[in-house]
Amino acid sequence: MRDEDRPRAIVPGYADRDVTKVPGWHGLVVWDVLLNSLTTGLYLFAAVADLGFPGVLGPAARAAYPVALAWLMADLLLLVLDLGDPLRFHHMLRIFKPSSPMSLGTWSLTAYSMPLGLIVGIELVEWLELLPAWSTLLEGARTASVVLALLPAFGSVAYKGVLFSTSSQPGWKDARWLGGFMANSAALLGCVQILVLATLRGEERAAAAFRGVAVVLLPVSLIPTALVFREIRGTLARLYTRRQIDLVTALIVAGGTLAPWLILLLADGAASTLIAASLVLLGSLAARARFLEIPHASQERRGQTPAGASGHYSPTTGPAS
Protein backbone atom coordinates (compact mmCIF):
# COMPACT_ATOMS: atom_id res chain seq x y z
CA MET A 1 0.00 0.00 0.00
CA ARG A 2 1.33 3.34 -0.93
CA ASP A 3 1.97 5.90 1.84
CA GLU A 4 -0.59 8.31 0.45
CA ASP A 5 -3.25 5.56 0.61
CA ARG A 6 -2.65 4.71 4.26
CA PRO A 7 -5.25 6.06 6.73
CA ARG A 8 -3.94 9.08 8.55
CA ALA A 9 -4.10 9.33 12.31
CA ILE A 10 -6.44 11.95 13.62
CA VAL A 11 -4.42 14.59 15.45
CA PRO A 12 -6.33 16.11 18.34
CA GLY A 13 -6.92 19.85 18.11
CA TYR A 14 -6.68 22.56 20.73
CA ALA A 15 -10.37 23.04 21.45
CA ASP A 16 -10.18 21.28 24.83
CA ARG A 17 -6.65 22.34 25.78
CA ASP A 18 -5.15 25.40 27.41
CA VAL A 19 -2.48 26.71 25.08
CA THR A 20 -1.58 29.93 26.88
CA LYS A 21 1.82 30.71 28.36
CA VAL A 22 1.65 30.59 32.14
CA PRO A 23 2.69 33.81 33.93
CA GLY A 24 6.12 33.63 35.52
CA TRP A 25 5.16 34.75 39.02
CA HIS A 26 3.70 33.33 42.20
CA GLY A 27 3.17 35.10 45.53
CA LEU A 28 4.22 38.65 44.76
CA VAL A 29 1.19 39.52 42.64
CA VAL A 30 -1.19 38.17 45.31
CA TRP A 31 0.09 40.78 47.75
CA ASP A 32 -0.07 43.43 45.05
CA VAL A 33 -3.75 42.73 44.40
CA LEU A 34 -4.49 42.69 48.13
CA LEU A 35 -2.62 45.95 48.79
CA ASN A 36 -4.44 47.59 45.90
CA SER A 37 -7.78 46.70 47.52
CA LEU A 38 -6.56 47.83 50.94
CA THR A 39 -5.47 51.30 49.83
CA THR A 40 -8.32 52.09 47.43
CA GLY A 41 -11.04 50.60 49.62
CA LEU A 42 -9.83 52.48 52.68
CA TYR A 43 -9.49 55.75 50.78
CA LEU A 44 -12.94 55.55 49.18
CA PHE A 45 -14.58 54.79 52.52
CA ALA A 46 -12.64 57.55 54.28
CA ALA A 47 -13.38 60.11 51.55
CA VAL A 48 -17.13 59.44 51.58
CA ALA A 49 -17.18 59.60 55.38
CA ASP A 50 -15.07 62.77 55.44
CA LEU A 51 -17.13 64.59 52.82
CA GLY A 52 -20.55 63.37 53.90
CA PHE A 53 -20.29 63.26 57.70
CA PRO A 54 -17.29 65.37 58.71
CA GLY A 55 -18.48 65.96 62.26
CA VAL A 56 -18.91 62.34 63.38
CA LEU A 57 -16.78 60.38 60.91
CA GLY A 58 -14.25 63.03 59.85
CA PRO A 59 -11.59 62.37 62.54
CA ALA A 60 -11.44 58.65 61.74
CA ALA A 61 -11.34 59.42 58.02
CA ARG A 62 -8.42 61.79 58.46
CA ALA A 63 -6.54 59.11 60.38
CA ALA A 64 -7.18 56.72 57.47
CA TYR A 65 -5.46 58.80 54.78
CA PRO A 66 -1.86 58.14 55.92
CA VAL A 67 -2.63 54.42 56.19
CA ALA A 68 -4.05 54.42 52.66
CA LEU A 69 -0.90 56.20 51.43
CA ALA A 70 1.33 53.62 53.14
CA TRP A 71 -0.58 50.75 51.46
CA LEU A 72 -0.31 52.56 48.13
CA MET A 73 3.46 53.04 48.42
CA ALA A 74 3.90 49.35 49.23
CA ASP A 75 1.69 48.41 46.28
CA LEU A 76 3.60 50.63 43.85
CA LEU A 77 6.86 49.13 45.08
CA LEU A 78 5.60 45.64 44.30
CA LEU A 79 4.44 46.78 40.87
CA VAL A 80 7.87 48.14 40.01
CA LEU A 81 9.73 45.11 41.40
CA ASP A 82 7.52 42.73 39.42
CA LEU A 83 8.46 44.28 36.08
CA GLY A 84 11.06 42.51 33.98
CA ASP A 85 13.08 45.76 34.05
CA PRO A 86 11.97 47.98 36.97
CA LEU A 87 13.79 51.01 35.53
CA ARG A 88 11.36 51.01 32.58
CA PHE A 89 8.31 51.65 34.72
CA HIS A 90 7.88 55.17 33.36
CA HIS A 91 7.47 53.77 29.82
CA MET A 92 3.94 52.65 30.72
CA LEU A 93 2.92 56.28 31.07
CA ARG A 94 3.83 57.20 27.51
CA ILE A 95 0.39 56.13 26.21
CA PHE A 96 -3.08 56.82 27.57
CA LYS A 97 -5.67 54.41 26.20
CA PRO A 98 -8.90 54.36 28.25
CA SER A 99 -10.16 51.25 26.44
CA SER A 100 -7.17 49.26 27.72
CA PRO A 101 -7.52 48.03 31.35
CA MET A 102 -3.78 48.10 31.93
CA SER A 103 -3.33 51.62 30.53
CA LEU A 104 -6.33 52.93 32.45
CA GLY A 105 -5.13 51.20 35.60
CA THR A 106 -1.62 52.60 35.35
CA TRP A 107 -2.86 56.14 34.88
CA SER A 108 -5.51 55.72 37.60
CA LEU A 109 -2.88 54.67 40.13
CA THR A 110 -0.68 57.60 39.14
CA ALA A 111 -3.55 60.09 39.31
CA TYR A 112 -4.71 58.62 42.63
CA SER A 113 -1.28 58.82 44.26
CA MET A 114 -0.81 62.56 43.67
CA PRO A 115 -3.84 64.03 45.50
CA LEU A 116 -3.55 61.38 48.20
CA GLY A 117 0.04 62.44 48.86
CA LEU A 118 -1.09 66.07 48.92
CA ILE A 119 -3.85 65.25 51.43
CA VAL A 120 -1.39 63.59 53.80
CA GLY A 121 1.08 66.45 53.35
CA ILE A 122 -1.57 69.04 54.25
CA GLU A 123 -2.66 66.95 57.23
CA LEU A 124 0.96 66.93 58.45
CA VAL A 125 1.34 70.69 58.01
CA GLU A 126 -1.88 71.32 59.93
CA TRP A 127 -0.93 68.87 62.68
CA LEU A 128 2.46 70.55 63.14
CA GLU A 129 0.81 74.01 62.94
CA LEU A 130 3.46 75.18 60.49
CA LEU A 131 1.20 77.62 58.58
CA PRO A 132 -1.59 78.71 60.95
CA ALA A 133 -2.37 81.80 58.90
CA TRP A 134 -3.05 79.63 55.86
CA SER A 135 -5.38 77.21 57.65
CA THR A 136 -8.47 78.18 55.61
CA LEU A 137 -6.61 77.87 52.31
CA LEU A 138 -5.05 74.55 53.34
CA GLU A 139 -8.42 73.14 54.37
CA GLY A 140 -9.91 74.11 51.03
CA ALA A 141 -7.00 72.49 49.18
CA ARG A 142 -7.38 69.34 51.27
CA THR A 143 -11.10 69.06 50.50
CA ALA A 144 -10.45 69.63 46.80
CA SER A 145 -7.79 66.92 46.83
CA VAL A 146 -10.17 64.47 48.51
CA VAL A 147 -12.73 65.04 45.76
CA LEU A 148 -10.08 64.93 43.02
CA ALA A 149 -8.78 61.51 44.10
CA LEU A 150 -12.21 59.83 44.12
CA LEU A 151 -12.45 59.00 40.42
CA PRO A 152 -8.89 57.62 39.94
CA ALA A 153 -9.25 55.67 43.19
CA PHE A 154 -12.36 53.99 41.81
CA GLY A 155 -10.53 53.27 38.55
CA SER A 156 -7.67 51.74 40.51
CA VAL A 157 -9.96 49.47 42.50
CA ALA A 158 -11.80 48.17 39.45
CA TYR A 159 -9.12 47.70 36.81
CA LYS A 160 -7.33 44.64 38.15
CA GLY A 161 -10.37 42.39 38.08
CA VAL A 162 -11.22 43.54 34.56
CA LEU A 163 -7.60 43.04 33.47
CA PHE A 164 -7.50 39.44 34.65
CA SER A 165 -10.91 38.59 33.19
CA THR A 166 -9.93 39.90 29.75
CA SER A 167 -6.87 37.66 29.56
CA SER A 168 -6.77 34.25 27.87
CA GLN A 169 -5.61 32.35 30.96
CA PRO A 170 -7.71 29.36 32.06
CA GLY A 171 -10.25 30.28 34.72
CA TRP A 172 -9.50 33.98 34.51
CA LYS A 173 -11.09 34.35 31.09
CA ASP A 174 -14.38 32.99 32.44
CA ALA A 175 -14.56 35.26 35.52
CA ARG A 176 -16.59 38.14 34.08
CA TRP A 177 -17.77 39.10 37.57
CA LEU A 178 -14.21 39.42 38.87
CA GLY A 179 -14.21 43.23 38.56
CA GLY A 180 -17.36 43.40 40.69
CA PHE A 181 -15.89 40.96 43.19
CA MET A 182 -12.69 43.02 43.53
CA ALA A 183 -14.61 46.27 43.97
CA ASN A 184 -16.91 44.75 46.58
CA SER A 185 -13.98 43.17 48.42
CA ALA A 186 -12.11 46.49 48.45
CA ALA A 187 -15.14 48.24 49.93
CA LEU A 188 -15.40 45.60 52.64
CA LEU A 189 -11.69 45.81 53.44
CA GLY A 190 -11.91 49.59 53.55
CA CYS A 191 -14.85 49.43 55.94
CA VAL A 192 -13.21 47.05 58.41
CA GLN A 193 -9.96 49.04 58.33
CA ILE A 194 -11.62 52.32 59.19
CA LEU A 195 -13.72 50.49 61.79
CA VAL A 196 -10.49 49.32 63.46
CA LEU A 197 -9.07 52.86 63.35
CA ALA A 198 -12.21 54.37 64.89
CA THR A 199 -12.26 51.67 67.58
CA LEU A 200 -8.61 52.10 68.52
CA ARG A 201 -9.04 55.88 68.64
CA GLY A 202 -11.97 55.55 71.03
CA GLU A 203 -14.47 57.17 68.64
CA GLU A 204 -17.53 55.21 69.73
CA ARG A 205 -20.11 56.88 67.47
CA ALA A 206 -17.95 56.47 64.39
CA ALA A 207 -17.13 52.87 65.30
CA ALA A 208 -20.81 52.06 65.75
CA ALA A 209 -21.62 53.56 62.34
CA PHE A 210 -18.84 51.67 60.55
CA ARG A 211 -19.76 48.45 62.34
CA GLY A 212 -23.32 48.75 61.09
CA VAL A 213 -22.09 49.20 57.52
CA ALA A 214 -19.76 46.20 57.85
CA VAL A 215 -22.62 44.04 59.11
CA VAL A 216 -24.50 44.86 55.90
CA LEU A 217 -21.52 44.54 53.54
CA LEU A 218 -20.39 41.12 54.77
CA PRO A 219 -23.45 39.09 53.68
CA VAL A 220 -23.79 41.21 50.53
CA SER A 221 -20.21 40.25 49.59
CA LEU A 222 -21.36 36.65 49.19
CA ILE A 223 -23.24 37.62 46.02
CA PRO A 224 -20.23 38.55 43.82
CA THR A 225 -18.27 35.70 45.41
CA ALA A 226 -20.93 33.22 44.37
CA LEU A 227 -21.16 34.70 40.86
CA VAL A 228 -17.40 34.41 40.30
CA PHE A 229 -17.34 30.88 41.70
CA ARG A 230 -20.17 29.86 39.38
CA GLU A 231 -18.22 31.14 36.40
CA ILE A 232 -15.00 29.28 37.23
CA ARG A 233 -16.40 26.17 38.92
CA GLY A 234 -15.78 24.07 35.81
CA THR A 235 -12.08 25.00 35.85
CA LEU A 236 -11.83 24.41 39.59
CA ALA A 237 -13.46 20.99 39.29
CA ARG A 238 -10.94 20.05 36.62
CA LEU A 239 -7.92 21.18 38.64
CA TYR A 240 -8.75 20.39 42.27
CA THR A 241 -10.36 17.64 44.30
CA ARG A 242 -13.75 18.17 45.89
CA ARG A 243 -12.13 18.26 49.31
CA GLN A 244 -9.68 21.00 48.28
CA ILE A 245 -12.50 23.10 46.85
CA ASP A 246 -14.61 22.61 49.98
CA LEU A 247 -11.74 23.61 52.27
CA VAL A 248 -11.03 26.83 50.39
CA THR A 249 -14.73 27.64 50.15
CA ALA A 250 -15.09 27.15 53.91
CA LEU A 251 -12.09 29.41 54.55
CA ILE A 252 -13.42 32.18 52.30
CA VAL A 253 -17.14 31.96 53.06
CA ALA A 254 -17.30 30.67 56.64
CA GLY A 255 -13.99 31.98 57.96
CA GLY A 256 -13.72 35.21 55.99
CA THR A 257 -17.37 36.26 55.81
CA LEU A 258 -19.86 34.53 58.11
CA ALA A 259 -17.62 34.30 61.19
CA PRO A 260 -16.65 38.01 61.23
CA TRP A 261 -20.27 38.91 60.49
CA LEU A 262 -21.44 37.04 63.59
CA ILE A 263 -18.63 38.55 65.70
CA LEU A 264 -19.49 42.12 64.68
CA LEU A 265 -23.18 41.43 65.10
CA LEU A 266 -22.86 40.04 68.63
CA ALA A 267 -19.89 41.97 70.08
CA ASP A 268 -18.56 45.50 69.90
CA GLY A 269 -15.29 45.51 71.84
CA ALA A 270 -11.83 46.28 70.49
CA ALA A 271 -10.69 42.65 70.67
CA SER A 272 -13.70 41.33 68.77
CA THR A 273 -13.31 44.06 66.15
CA LEU A 274 -9.65 43.17 65.59
CA ILE A 275 -10.49 39.46 65.32
CA ALA A 276 -13.28 40.12 62.82
CA ALA A 277 -11.05 42.41 60.71
CA SER A 278 -8.26 39.81 60.74
CA LEU A 279 -10.66 37.12 59.51
CA VAL A 280 -11.88 39.34 56.68
CA LEU A 281 -8.27 40.06 55.68
CA LEU A 282 -7.31 36.37 55.71
CA GLY A 283 -10.39 35.41 53.72
CA SER A 284 -9.63 38.08 51.12
CA LEU A 285 -6.02 36.92 50.87
CA ALA A 286 -7.09 33.29 50.46
CA ALA A 287 -9.60 34.15 47.72
CA ARG A 288 -7.00 36.08 45.73
CA ALA A 289 -4.29 33.46 46.21
CA ARG A 290 -6.53 30.62 45.05
CA PHE A 291 -7.82 32.50 42.03
CA LEU A 292 -4.43 33.80 40.89
CA GLU A 293 -2.79 30.37 41.05
CA ILE A 294 -5.26 28.80 38.61
CA PRO A 295 -2.98 29.07 35.52
CA HIS A 296 -0.12 27.40 37.44
CA ALA A 297 -2.40 24.64 38.67
CA SER A 298 -3.60 24.13 35.11
CA GLN A 299 0.00 23.85 33.91
CA GLU A 300 0.87 21.33 36.61
CA ARG A 301 -2.21 19.34 35.69
CA ARG A 302 -0.97 19.12 32.11
CA GLY A 303 2.53 18.21 33.27
CA GLN A 304 4.16 20.92 31.20
CA THR A 305 7.48 22.64 31.78
CA PRO A 306 7.06 25.85 33.80
CA ALA A 307 6.95 28.94 31.64
CA GLY A 308 8.58 31.24 34.19
CA ALA A 309 11.76 31.47 32.17
CA SER A 310 10.00 32.63 29.02
CA GLY A 311 6.82 34.29 30.22
CA HIS A 312 6.39 37.10 32.70
CA TYR A 313 3.50 38.89 34.23
CA SER A 314 3.21 42.38 35.58
CA PRO A 315 0.04 43.36 37.46
CA THR A 316 0.30 46.71 35.71
CA THR A 317 1.20 45.66 32.18
CA GLY A 318 -0.96 42.54 32.15
CA PRO A 319 -0.75 38.75 32.02
CA ALA A 320 1.17 36.84 29.42
CA SER A 321 -0.99 34.93 26.97
The name of the CATH topology is Formate dehydrogenase/DMSO reductase fold
CATH homologous superfamily, by name? Answer: Formate dehydrogenase/DMSO reductase domain
Structural domain count = 1
Overall mean pLDDT: 82
Structural class, please? mainly alpha
The largest sheet is: none
> Beta-strand level of the residues, as a percent range?
under 5%
Give the total of beta strands: 0
Quaternary class = single chain
Spell out the key features of this protein.
321 residues, mainly alpha, Formate dehydrogenase/DMSO reductase fold, 11 helices, 0% strand, globular
Task: Characterise the protein shown here.
The chain has eleven helices and no strands. The protein is mostly helical. The protein has one domain (24-302): Formate dehydrogenase/DMSO reductase fold, CATH 1.20.1630. Helix 1 (27-52) packs across helix 10 (270-292), helix 2 (58-81) packs across helix 6 and helix 6 (178-200) runs antiparallel to helix 10. The protein is globular, with a radius of gyration of 23 Å.
Question: Which helices and strands appear, and what pairs or packs with what?
Answer:
Elements (H helix, E strand, L loop, with lengths): L26 H26 L5 H24 L19 H28 L6 H14 L1 H16 L12 H23 L3 H17 L1 H18 L2 H25 L3 H23 L1 H9 L19
Helix pairs in contact: 1-2, 1-5, 1-6, 1-10, 2-3, 2-6, 3-4, 3-5, 5-6, 6-7, 6-10, 7-9, 9-10
Concise account of the structure shown:
This protein has 321 residues and is an all-alpha fold.
